[in-house]
Design brief:
With 950 residues, the chain is α/β, with parallel strands linked by helices. The protein is 33% helix and 25% strand. The protein contains 30 helices and 42 strands. Residues 380-517 form the Nudix hydrolase domain.
Length: 950
């Protein structure tokens, strides 16, 4: 048999598929549409990247699977070619972006055409063409009509290297996501989209969406819904009002200072003469830091302004500080600081020596033992002193053993009316043990509540507990009463043994607090030191405080969102011009639809960014001069261009009508094809591209163009491809070039290997040895063709294995478990290799099964059977005989260290080795064992696999 020449065969079929229009879709005449979409690429000069190629492959195999099932599949291709990436590279090589892109797109087109992807090349779109960006501009004008596009002055992120404004979402780890430069803050007049008007709608849609959970979680966090209250504080003496938003109105009584962002306009007005120099110096220092440095810096810094704010609850004066951990862009740029119950405020207060006042106490209810509250007993509230008493010489602590109840505890007793906790502690120690000479050391943070049954007093108690630590000065001791002796005895216990004692619940908690580092208590609990809120739970206290604020006109309950409006202005050249004309009489006026597109002028020079706050187009006289569409007077065009994320927020609509000059897309086609059935891409796009696509889709819905507001029925985030376990980078010299491996092993083998590496959502490590294994599998299949004989009938065992494989591979496709589907096909290949011959029916079924993974190989072998039409037009995806797979599978329990973590369907007779391998391949199990060592795998036939890890 001649050797399988993958280069020749893959090239042949890639060209013939295009020529025969195998993957070209008649969008108007479809009956069973399936829209498969990958994120259209930015055509970089480096060419196709393995990460892009993997995402494309994840979509392409599904598209081919659906086509084999008889669906009318549409898998389009286009170019996300505007933006700073392209412009920066053009600057680097001294070429205009237009000239550069004609070359890079040509290269990308060549690479993708060779890879055997099932793209419809007849509907290619390019975001940089006037035919495309006319409709990008049209979207802007429609949003402007609806009040969703507006211009305002704002303090924004400005990248000094890229010389343009950046959206919040384009800041990664405190730096520009494109060039890595720390952005500066600048006040500039910019155009925004009011995505905040959709905050709740964007949030409400998430639970209903079949999207990767990691993506939905990222969007939920980015939208950042917070329920709380707007509270009206004022600056003492001058009575200047200032509002803050807080999620914890229940802690207002605990506010001991007030903080303004260094950029807050009130700072200059309220700073005293004595503090002015320090404040101005601090503002300069804060301005030099990135937002990430300000929010993540462990050392909290700040300066006192000399002014005081009035707490509206109790009219208490609290000092006003400026601190860089408060950002002007979030909330109102001001906060009330409650150090007892906020980690950042705690750190700041500790450093500055500001009072920390506890107003929420942890709350525990006893749930085991004889101290569980009894429903038939009365319940009282009381204040308790829990006293940890240390020996005068040794590291030992006094322990009481209670005779009637069997309890073990520290010294404990009630705090009487008008008695301090310290006095109560001294009295109880003396009464219960006779020790007289006590040195009070400190109160242990925090106070807490517990609810328990005091069996010896025949009642339930809700006790507010104060933990006190005392040391005995000496052994001097007086006699205790016979009544106390009858209650308990005491002993000394070494500190390292205390944790082993069966202390009452309250004192287990007290001992933990005693030994841990003090920190803000940020959980829910019960209010203390809070006047009319005392004794209420956190939720009860929040409601009561909001009602009080609203009644007094001092605040109101409200919902706040982290999401900010989308700044779309860019002071660059390479983007669609903002379709606005500025008239001295009429103000900003949208360019009428009949005059769209506003064409980007072709510039050979003068297109470089100036960094002066205006785009390069401001200097192009022929572009800037315009007539006002309203009054006809002399006017100027807007010199900014739009963020290229707007281009990619709607491109999947345009694919349907790429050459339509009258409308953004054909509504009838939209009805048939939208929403997109499957979309795949990296999760790094969760809060940029994917959030913006949802926003634009909702806006188009509200314009009456579509009847849905989720653009993608299913979105799956793919993981990264690593090289030999490391992230790829040019500096490491480990970048994988798909074209290079396509020539080395063939694209069929490359794609199969990428999909076989592991679950689609996980990061996977690419090795040269592994991809060679995929090549050998492809060659192994090619060698099987001579076994397919017309007269042969397969053995029952072979037929059974085939039908089991059809079932599992079909199910795996539906769940996009491509790695396990490939594994099953490799098992079936081994069965065929052992068989002497293969029947034509089994062979055809097998070719259909492998076709999505190895399209060129499957097509070649299919045509060798005498078939005239492409396998992908054959609708030949096989079905399985239920009788042959009936009762052949079982549900196998998979445990990790004895705990149930997954249930997987396997063959009934599966052996120990295979069961262990299948269990370890499970996506759920891989998450649990990631970074852990598998010690052993225990197998109980027909029942379970227990994976022991450490």
């Amino acid at each position: 048999m001649k050797k399988y020449d993958f280069n020749k065969i893959e090239k042949k079929w890639a060209q013939k598929w295009v020529k025969d229009k195998v993957f070209t879709s008649d969008l108007a005449k479809v009956k069973n549409p399936y829209y498969a979409l990958f994120m259209f690429p930015y055509p970089s000069a480096e060419g196709l990247h393995i990460g892009n190629f993997y995402a494309f492959t994840c979509v392409d195999v599904m598209a081919k699977y659906r086509k084999l099932q008889g669906r009318d599949v549409f898998e389009p291709i286009g170019w996300d070619a505007f933006g700073i990436h392209s412009e920066n590279y053009a600057l680097q090589i001294g070429q205009t972006p237009m000239k550069m892109l004609s070359r890079t797109i040509k290269n990308f087109r060549k690479q993708l055409s060779s890879a055997g992807l099932g793209c419809d090349w007849t509907r290619e779109v390019d975001t940089t063409t006037p035919e495309y960006y006319k409709w990008t501009q049209w979207i802007f004008t429609k949003l402007l009509e609806k009040g969703l596009a507006f211009q305002k002055k704002a303090i924004l992120n400005f990248c000094p290297s890229c010389k343009t404004v950046l959206a919040d979402e384009q800041i990664e780890s405190g730096a520009c996501e494109r060039c890595g430069t720390a952005p500066e803050k600048k006040e500039m007049k910019q155009w925004f989209f009011k995505i905040t008007a959709f905050s709740q709608r964007l949030l409400d849609g998430l639970p209903k969406m079949d999207w990767s959970e990691i993506t939905k979680s990222a969007q939920k966090n980015w939208i950042g819904r917070s329920e709380g209250a707007m509270v009206k504080f004022s600056i003492a003496d001058c009575r200047l009002p200032i509002e803050i938003f807080t999620t914890r109105p229940d802690t207002l009584f605990g506010a001991t200072y007030f903080v303004l962002s260094p950029e807050h306009p009130l700072v200059a007005k309220i700073t005293t003469k004595e503090q002015k120099k320090q404040v101005e110096k601090y503002i300069r220092q804060a301005g030099a830091k990135s937002e990430l440095e300000r929010t993540e810096n462990k050392e909290k810094t700040g300066v006192f302004t000399g002014a005081y704010a009035l707490n509206p609850i109790n009219k208490e004066k609290i000092p006003v500080w400026i601190a860089d951990y408060v950002l002007m862009g979030y909330g109102t740029g001001a906060i009330m600081a409650v150090p007892a119950h906020d980690e950042r405020d705690w750190e700041f207060a500790k450093k500055q020596g500001i009072e920390i006042r506890q107003v929420v106490a942890p709350y525990w209810k006893v749930t085991t033992g004889n101290a569980v509250p009894k429903p038939n007993l009365p319940t009282i509230k009381r204040n308790n002193a829990d006293v940890i008493v240390k020996h005068w010489e040794k590291d030992e602590y006094l322990i009481l053993n209670w005779k009637e109840t069997g309890w073990t505890s520290f010294v404990v007793g009630g705090i009487e009316d008008n008695e301090s906790p310290e006095a109560a502690a001294a009295r109880e120690v003396r009464e219960e043990t006779g020790f007289k000479n006590i040195k009070f050391v400190k109160k242990i943070w925090p106070q807490f509540y517990n609810f328990a049954c005091a069996v010896h007093k025949n009642r339930n108690q809700i006790a507010r507990r104060t933990i006190l630590y005392v040391e005995l000065k000496n052994s001097e001791q007086e006699k205790i009463t016979s009544k106390e002796k009858a209650k308990h005895s005491f002993k000394w216990c070494p500190g390292h043994e205390i944790g082993k004692l069966d202390l009452i619940d309250a004192h287990k908690i007290a001992w933990n607090f005693f030994n841990q580092k003090e920190a803000a208590f940020i959980e829910a609990g019960v209010n203390i030191n809070s006047d009319f809120l005392d004794g209420l739970t956190t939720e009860e206290a929040k409601k009561k405080m909001i009602a009080w604020l609203e009644e007094k006109g001092l605040g109101k309950g409200t919902v706040n969102y982290r999401l900010r409006d989308w700044c779309i202005s860019r002071q660059r050249y390479w983007g669609p011009p903002v379709p606005i004309i500025h008239c001295p009489n009429c103000g900003p006026v949208a360019v009428p639809e009949k005059d769209l597109p506003v064409k980007l002028p072709e510039l050979d020079k003068g297109w470089e960014p100036a960094g002066d706050g205006r785009g390069p187009l401001a200097k192009v006289k022929g572009f800037m001069e315009a007539k006002c569409p309203k009054c006809g007077g002399e006017a100027e065009r807007e010199p900014d261009v739009m963020d290229n994320f707007l281009d990619s927020a709607w491109y999947f609509f345009r694919y349907l009508s790429h050459d339509n000059k009258k409308e953004i897309f054909d509504k009838k086609r939209g009805k048939k094809w939208l929403p997109v059935d499957l979309y795949v891409g990296g999760n790094e796009h969760a809060v940029l591209h994917l959030m913006y696509t949802r926003f634009i889709t909702m806006a188009l819905h509200d314009l009456g163009l579509i009847d849905f507001d989720n653009p993608f029925k299913r979105f799956r985030a793919n993981g990264m491809i690593l090289k030999d376990g490391a992230k790829m980078s040019k500096s490491k010299g480990n970048v994988i070039n798909p074209e290079e491996y396509g020539k080395k092993v063939g694209y069929d083998a490359l794609k199969t290997y990428l999909l076989f590496l592991g679950p689609m959502s996980e990061n996977r490590s690419f090795t040269d040895q592994g991809v060679q294994g995929a090549r050998r599998w492809v060659e192994k299949i090619y060698k099987l063709k001579d076994k397919a004989l017309k007269s042969h009938k397969d053995s029952p065992e072979v037929i059974k294995k085939l039908h089991q494989t059809i079932r599992v591979v079909t199910e795996d496709f539906e769940d996009q478990k491509y790695n396990t589907a490939v594994a099953r096909l490799m098992e079936l290949t081994n069965v065929f290799s052992v068989a002497k011959q293969i029947s034509p029916d089994s062979w055809q079924k097998f070719l259909a099964l492998i076709a999505p993974f190895t399209p060129a190989l499957a097509e070649e072998l299919w045509r060798e059977l005498g078939e005239k039409n492409s396998i992908f037009n054959s609708k030949s995806w096989p079905s399985y005989d239920k009788k042959l797979v009936k009762d052949e599978t079982i549900n196998l329990v998979v445990q990790i260290n004895g705990k149930l973590r997954d249930t997987i369907e396997v063959e009934a007779g599966i052996g120990e080795e295979e069961a262990g391998e299948v269990a370890l391949r499970s996506e759920k199990i891989q998450k649990w064992i990631k970074g852990k060592k598998v010690v052993k795998v225990i197998f109980i036939k027909g029942k379970l696999v227990n994976i022991v890890i450490k």
